[in-house]
Every structure is written in C-alpha cells, then in structure tokens.
Amino acid sequence: MQDITYRARPRALLVAVAAVMAPTLTAPAVAHAATRKAGRTITVASGDTLELTETTTASVLTIEEGGVITVPDGYSLSLTVNGVETGSELAELTDGYGGAATAIAAGTYQGTVILNVAEATDLAYDDLTFPFRQALYVDADGVDESKSVPSAVLGGTVTDTAAKSVRLLSDGEAFNGVYVTGGGTYTLTKTRIAYTGNGRCDFIGYGAAVVGTGEGTTLVLDGATIRNEGVVRTAVIADATANVIVKNSTIHCANGTVPDEYPASGTGDTRYMITVPWMLGLSGNVRATNLLGASTKASYINSSISSETWGALSVDGGSNCTLTAINSTIANTGGEGYGSYAIGNVTEHFLGCTFDVGDYALIHWGASAHYGDSTADAVADLNDSLELGLTSAELAEIKEKSTTVNAGRFMVMWYAAGSVTIDGGTEVNTGETAFMCKAVAGKVTVDGSDGASINPGNGIIFQLMDTDRPSSVTVSGKPWKTETTGTYTEPTGSPTKSSSWVTTSAQSTDAQATFTDIDLKGDFYNSVRGGGNASLQGQNLVLGFTGSTVEGVISAGTAKHNVSTITSAEYREISEVTNTPSAVVNNGVIVTLGSGSTWTVTGTSYLSALTLSSDASVTAASGKTVTLTVDGTETEIKASSTYTGALTLTVA
Question: What pLDDT, in 10s, does the model give residues 188-214?
Fold first, then answer.
C-alpha cells in the first residue's frame, strides 16, 4: 500500500466554496485506497477494517457495528455529508489517553459523502495529546490545505489571509472550525458556525469553533455568528500570546450531555475538567470563551457573548492576560453563571457593557478589573495599547455608553487578592450582596462622581467572610488526579482571640472598599473568625468614604449558612449567609469618613476604629439618636477625631 503524499501548498489561493461540494482547497496526491466500492457505495462490514490512504467520495457509506475505518499513522480522518462534519465519536475519558481519539460511528450516511484524509494535528496539553481536526488550519503562510478539511467549509470565499461568508456546521464530536497559529494573521468576516456535539478540553480548545494561538498570531472575527451546543464546545479560544479580536458578532454556547464515565461531582484536574466546579455555586458544562496562556489578549467589541450557564467570558490557566469588552452584552441564559472569570494576574476592561448574568458579574482569583464608560478617549487608548486595529471610522461608530451590571446574586466574588474599579455611570444591580469577599485582600474602588451607583438586592453592599469553598480530594486509580467530593462544614462555638492580630489599624492582607462622591444605602459586614481558623489569624475590613453618604449597618458580625454542611448536592448554598452584628474578635472594621461624608447608622454596629474628618458626621435617622461607646465608655462623636478599641454604635 502506498503512503499518502501531498502536493506542495499553493499560496495566495482564492477558493470559492460551493454550498455542498467535494474539497477544493487541495487534496492528497492520488493514491490507491484499500476500499470496497459498489459504484459510489462504500460498506464496511462488522469485524472489517478499511484503511483509507486518500480522501474518498461516495454517495452512500455504511459502517456496520464493529466495522472500522482507519488512516495511516500521521493522518486524521473526518467525515462530511453534504458539507456537515458528522459521525465523529470520542473515546471514553477512561481509556487511558484522555478519551481524545475519535472514530466514525456506525451507521449509514447518504448524500455527498466525503471521507477526508488530512495530515494529523496532534497537540499536547499536560501529559495528554489531542488529535485536532479542523475545517481550516492557518499558519504564518496562510491556509495549510494538507491539515484542513475543505469539504467542511460551505459557501463564501477563502484566501490565505481571510475567509468571508463561509458556514461551518458539525454534529460530530471534537471537530474544530478555524485554527490559527504560528504567527499568522487571519480575518473571518460574516462567518456562521453552528457546532452540536461534545468537545473535550477547553484548556487547549479541542472542539472549539475558533482558536487563535501562538506568539504573533492575530485572529479577527467581524460579523460572526457562533452558536454551539455541547460539553466544552467552546466558541472562542485565545491562547499562547495570541491577539484575538471579535467585533460585531454574536456568540452563544449551550450545555451538552456529560459522558457517563465522568465523575458525578466533577474534577478540578484541568486535563479532564468538563464541568464548572460546583464549589463556585454553579452548574454547567460549557463556557462560551476561554483566554489562556501568557500575555494573551482577547477583545470583544459591539458583540453579544452568552452561555447557558457556567460562564460567558473566562480567563483560565493563563498569566498576565488582557480581556476586554466594549459596548457588548455579556449574559447567561439559563439562570446560573458568571459574566467573567479572572485568574493569573489578568487585566479586564469592561466599557459600555451590559451584564445580564445568573450569579456573578465577576469571579475574582487575582486580577485588576475595571467597569466604566466607553468614552472616545478610553476606547482609543485601548485600541492603541491592545492593537485592536479599529479604523478611525470604526472608532467613530462606537457610541459612548455606561456599563450596567444586572447580576442574579453578586457583582464580584473574590477568592484571591485583587482590585475592582467602578466609575463613570456604571450601574450595579444585584439580587443579593454586591461585593462578596472570601477572606482575601479584595479591593474595590467606586467613583460615583459621574453617576455610578450600587444597588444590592438584599441590602448588603460588602460581605467579608471565611471561605466556604470545599477542597478537591485526591484520588488514585483514575485518569484524573482529583475529584470535587469535599464538603464544607460550618464552624461551631465562638472564635478564639488571636494574640498577634491587630484590629485597630489596616494590614496589607485586609479587604478594602473606597467610595467617592456617591450615595449608598446598605450594610457592610466582616464575619471572618480568625484565631487560626483556616490558618487565618484575622482580617480587617477597611472602609473609606469621601464626599459620600452611607445609610446602613457597618459592623463586625457572625455569619451563618442556611445549612451546616454543604456538599455538591447543596452547591447553591455556597455564599448564602445571614449576619448577626457582634463584637470584634479578629475581624476588625476600620471606617474613615473623609471630607464631606456622612454615615447614618441604622442599627447596632461594632467597629475597631473610626476616623472622622473635620466636616464628616455620624448620625441616625430623623427622630432617632446614635450613641458611641469605646471600650464600654460612652463617648461623644466629634469631627476631626479618631476612636480605636471596642467601638459600639447603637441607635435609640
């Protein structure tokens, strides 16, 4: 049997791809395939193996149960019927290789049946190798026809630098649409992608609609529509220092059916992780996008990005990346999920965006995030610094808008130290607490001088509390290293006073919130236990107000969950607590009322430090009075004063 050989790749190739046709980008040189044909019919009987050495066309393909079609080592096989990739079936996750391989499923296929033989694209992630197959493979020289599946490209035109008005359809598994790598630059205009069926790993993009990866790579989507349905059948992957720019596009990903062999509670082992870790209080098995690698950039302009659950915009498994959205809508359609996920010292910009998310606008694992207005200057600065390539005409068409956040539960949930800035006319509306911080140095800065507002649905603006995230459990004898079978159990008894923790002055590990020129109505609580609980001696909540009014309780407290033990079955109980104001132990509350600020106390509040500027005041509602005691001694509240110790403010 002859080996397959390929013609040299032509460059500057312009291809007009018919609605349904045989591949025309380039085909392997003629070689004799070991096939059994009856006219244009191919049948692979049970127990038989058919090895193809060239791309083969038929009108009917029948694969009986137990029949197998193979290609030589170093090549991949994809089936299209009437231009739709189909029949590909992933191996089980537990096969010892990550379930990465695909086979053509038994069945009868009729129409324009094309069995595409292409050079293999084997890509490593950790210790697994994923055999990518894609409609278009693009590198620095343009389209590599030998690694592409041209019969999976419908309509439009394809060149070495761009594709316009093409359609990509798949109901098989783990088939990619467009893969751009190696420093290439490629533009997809008015592309339509609809992939149904499971992917396998969104930490490398195995099964994604589009992938831009590698240093120097730029992938632009303009006017695209991507609608995927399937487990980790991600729409857009940006990886390994690439620059991916999406504009004027619509992206939506819906959940699929999780393989039976996947652990019921899930795994945090990223080689196998195909569901969102339930300890985030979420469910779902596909996120619409993922941003990976080092210093990678992904930007979404005038676009709609949504997931059914899990997440719309994700940054995961990377470092020093930049995620940007300008005048875009970010949503979850299934009632659960996040707008963005931030990890690895990522910078996130959201200008003029609308969030309509099930749970969180942001899950914060160490980042800098900004929510503001899409002013001309701000957009122009990002256009330059992020190399967005927007023309002067495109910049002029971007109208200035404010950001609106509508979150079903929380605006931000911190699991690691990092900052959030809110300014311009940003409006934050949450079903529950606005800012949820899990015993880390979360920092939020809100500038209300241009109309920014914070509106918590449950009346709590900031909650600092112990982490209630269960840990993964190490397992052996399975392909994955961990399973998320841990539980959270509420501590009982009173916290132990730490001999080393200082509650009366700010520490570098404290959580901080600063508000300027804003009117606030809501409460602030610090319920961290400390004293060695979870190895934490203590943590303070440091609050600063300038030119602002705040009406509510600001206090140390005791937090209690609705249930005492949280397992995967109670995943929605994560972060769900009630607060009882209580005296400071290791959970200092340090309040500074700067110039022009007033705190109207609405209930008993316990602090460890209170500073008032010369024109600041502490009051109670009309007809009521507020009283301060310091270490049990009633003390007059005066401007230009600082009080430390056991502070209690009561309202009568």
Answer: 999 999 999 999 999 999 999 999 999
Confidence (pLDDT) at 2:
27
Give tens-digit pLDDT for 423-479: 999 999 999 999 999 999 999 999 999 999 999 999 999 999 999 999 899 999 999
Q: Are 527 and 468 in contact (CB under 8 A)?
A: no
CB-based contact 526:506 (threshold 8 Å) = no
Q: Which of 282, 347, 299, 341 is nearest to 321 (CA)?
A: 347
Place of tokens 């993922």: 290
Q: Phi/psi of residue 462, each to 5°?
A: -135, 130
Separation in Å, CA 273 to CA 201, 244, 287, 331, 545: 7, 24, 12, 22, 43
For residue 405, which of 378, 423, 419, 418 has the smallest C-alpha distance? 423
CA gap 389, 386 in Å, rounded: 9
Q: How far apart are CA 479 and CA 270, in angstroms?
A: 12
CA dihedral 312, 316, 318, 320 (to 10 degrees): 60
- What lies within 8 Å, CB to CB, of 385 at 6+ separation is none
3-state SS assignment for residue 146:
helix
pLDDT band at residue 184, thresholds of 50, 70 and 90? confident
- Exposure b/e, 412-439, CB count within 10 A at least 16 = b: bbbbbbbbbbbbbbbbbbbebbbbbbbb
Distance between CA atoms of residues 561 and 492, nearest Å: 12
> What's the burial of 361, exposed, middle or buried (CB within 10 Å: 0-12/13-18/19+)?
buried
Give the torsion sign (CA, 75, 76, 81, 83): negative
CB neighbourhood size of 500 (10 A): 7
Alpha helices, H only, 259-375? none
What sign for the dihedral angle of Cα 325, 329, 333, 336? positive
